[in-house]
C-alpha cells in the first residue's frame, strides 16, 4: 500500500512539475529574471529559435532558505539542425580552467554557420563553486562534504540536496539536450594533472572523439559509478571526462589543447564547418589503460623526484619524504613503467595520501578457472 501511494504521489508531482506531455521535454520559464537572464527549470533546445545564442539561469535545487541554486547556461543554436553537444564545467568547485576553456569554445561559435546546438553549463556544483572547493557541503549533516561527481545521475527523492540537484540537472538540462556530452575537470586542490582524458575506448564513437584531442595522455577507462561521464554513457550519450591540468588557476599551457580538440569534435560531428586541427596523433599522446597509484605510508614532507609527463621505470624513486628533523622517513618507488599523470603538490601529507599516479599499459588480464582478475579503476578527476 505504501508503495502504491508513493508511486501515485511521484506521478502526480512529475505531471505538475513538467506541465507538458512526458514525451517531450519543452523549455519551461519560471517567469523570473536574474541579472537580466531568464530563469528556466527545464530546457529543450528544440524550442529555441534557430541561428541565435541564448543565456539562461537554470533553476537547481533549493537551499534551506527556500531560495534556489542557479546555473549559468549558454546555448548556441545553429541555423540548421544537427547534433546537440553539451559542455559541462564546475561539477567540482575548485576547477576553473574548464570555465575558461568552455568560454573560449563558445566564443568561437557563430550560430548562423552552425548545424546543431552547443549548450554550455557552468558552475554545476554551485555551493562548491562559491567556496572554491571540490565538494558540496550539506548543512543538515554538520557540513559533511559530498562529491557531486559520485551521485550522478542523481535521485529525485534522494536523502540530500546535492543528489536531488544532480537529478534535476541531469534530467531537465543535460539529457534532453545531449547527443554528445563532454565533462571538463582538473586535478583537485593540492594536486596536479596533465592534459588528460578518461574515455571508454572500447566504444568506437567515444574513441573517435578522444583521439581528436592534441593532448598528453588518454586513459582507456571502463567508467566509475556516480560520475557524470559514466551516467551519460549509461544513458546512451557518448561522453568524455576531460582534465585540464591543475586546480584554482587558468592553465594557459593546457587550455588551448582542449579548445582545439573540442572544436575538432564539433567539426567531426558537422556542428561547425572547417577542417580538423591537430589531433592525438600529431601530439604523440600517450595511451594507457591503468593507473599505478603510489600512496604515502608515512606522514611528513614530500620532495618529488619525478613530475607530470615524466617517463618512469619500475624501481625508480619518484619521491622522498622527510620528517621535521630532516631525516628521510621513506623513499617512494614506481612499480611500473609508464608516464606520470597526477602528482601531489602539497608538500606536507598524511599517510594514505596519493603521492603520484602513473599511467601505464596493463599486462593481459590474468584469467583462471574462476574468471579474470577484476580491472581496478582509480578515478581522480
Ligand atoms: Zn573534477
What is this structure, in a nutshell?
This protein has helices at 2-18, 97-107, 126-130, 161-174, 204-210, 228-234, 255-268, 280-283; strands at 28-34, 37-42, 52-62, 68-77, 80-89, 115-121, 136-138, 144-146, 180-185, 191-193, 195-199, 217-220, 239-244, 286-288, 290-295, 300-304, 311-312, 317-322, 328-333, 338-344, 348-349, 354-360, 367-368, 371-372. By secondary structure, it is α+β, with helices and mostly antiparallel strands.
Q: Sheet with the most strands?
A: 11 strands, mixed
Q: Estimate the helix proportion, in percent.
A: 10-25%
Count of helical regions:
8
Q: Which structural class matches the secondary elements?
A: alpha+beta
How are strands sequenced across the largest beta sheet? 1-2-3-4-6-5-9-13-11-12-14
Question: What is the arithmetic mean of pLDDT?
Answer: 93
Beta-strand level of the residues, as a percent range?
A: 25-35%
> How would the global form be characterised?
globular
Ligands, deduplicated: zinc ion
Low-confidence stretches: 1-22
- Distance from N terminus to C terminus (CA atoms, Å) equals 43 Å
Kindly report the oligomeric state of this protein: single chain
Radius of gyration, Cα only, in angstroms?
Answer: 22 Å
Q: How many E strands?
A: 24
Amino acid at each position: 500500500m505504501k508503495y502504491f501511494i508513493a508511486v501515485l504521489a511521484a506521478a502526480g508531482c512529475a505531471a505538475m512539475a513538467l506541465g507538458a506531455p512526458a514525451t517531450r521535454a519543452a523549455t519551461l520559464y519560471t517567469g523570473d529574471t536574474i541579472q537580466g537572464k531568464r530563469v528556466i527549470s527545464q530546457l529543450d533546445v528544440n524550442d529555441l529559435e534557430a541561428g541565435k545564442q541564448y543565456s539562461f539561469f537554470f533553476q537547481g535545487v533549493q537551499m534551506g532558505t527556500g531560495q534556489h541554486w542557479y546555473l549559468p547556461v549558454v546555448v548556441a543554436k545553429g541555423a540548421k539542425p544537427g547534433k546537440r553537444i553539451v559542455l559541462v564545467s564546475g561539477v567540482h568547485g575548485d576547477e576553473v580552467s574548464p570555465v575558461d576553456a568552455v568560454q573560449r569554445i563558445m566564443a568561437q561559435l557563430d550560430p548562423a554557420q552552425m548545424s546543431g546546438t552547443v549548450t554550455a553549463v557552468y558552475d554545476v556544483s554551485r555551493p562548491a563553486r562559491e567556496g572554491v572547493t571540490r565538494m558540496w557541503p550539506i548543512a543538515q549533516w554538520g557540513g559533511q562534504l559530498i562529491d557531486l561527481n559520485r551521485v550522478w545521475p542523481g535521485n529525485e527523492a534522494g536523502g540530500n540536496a546535492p543528489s536531488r540537484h544532480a537529478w534535476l540537472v541531469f534530467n531537465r538540462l543535460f539529457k534532453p539536450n545531449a547527443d554528445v556530452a563532454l565533462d571538463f575537470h582538473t586535478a583537485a586542490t593540492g594536486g596536479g594533472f596533465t592534459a588528460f582524458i578518461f574515455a571508454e575506448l572500447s566504444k568506437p564513437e567515444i574513441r573517435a572523439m578522444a583521439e581528436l584531442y592534441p593532448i598528453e595522455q588518454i586513459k582507456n577507462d571502463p567508467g566509475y559509478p556516480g560520475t557524470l561521464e559514466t551516467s551519460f554513457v549509461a544513458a546512451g550519450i557518448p561522453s568524455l571526462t576531460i582534465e585540464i591540468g591543475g586546480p584554482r588557476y587558468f592553465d594557459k599551457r593546457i587550455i588551448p589543447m582542449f579548445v582545439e580538440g573540442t572544436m575538432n569534435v564539433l567539426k567531426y560531428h558537422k556542428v561547425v564547418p572547417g577542417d580538423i586541427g591537430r589531433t592525438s596523433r600529431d601530439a604523440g599522446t600517450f595511451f594507457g589503460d591503468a593507473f599505478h597509484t603510489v600512496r604515502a605510508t608515512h606522514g611528513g614532507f614530500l620532495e618529488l623526484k619525478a613530475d607530470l609527463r615524466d617517463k618512469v621505470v619500475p624501481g625508480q624513486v619518484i619521491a622522498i619524504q622527510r620528517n621535521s628533523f630532516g631525516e628521510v622517513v621513506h623513499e617512494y618507488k614506481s612499480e611500473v613503467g609508464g608516464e606520470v599523470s597526477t602528482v601531489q603538490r602539497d608538500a606536507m601529507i598524511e599517510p594514505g595520501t596519493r603521492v603520484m599516479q602513473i599511467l601505464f599499459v596493463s599486462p593481459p588480464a590474468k584469467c583462471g578457472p574462476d574468471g579474470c582478475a577484476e580491472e581496478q579503476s582509480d578515478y581522480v578527476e
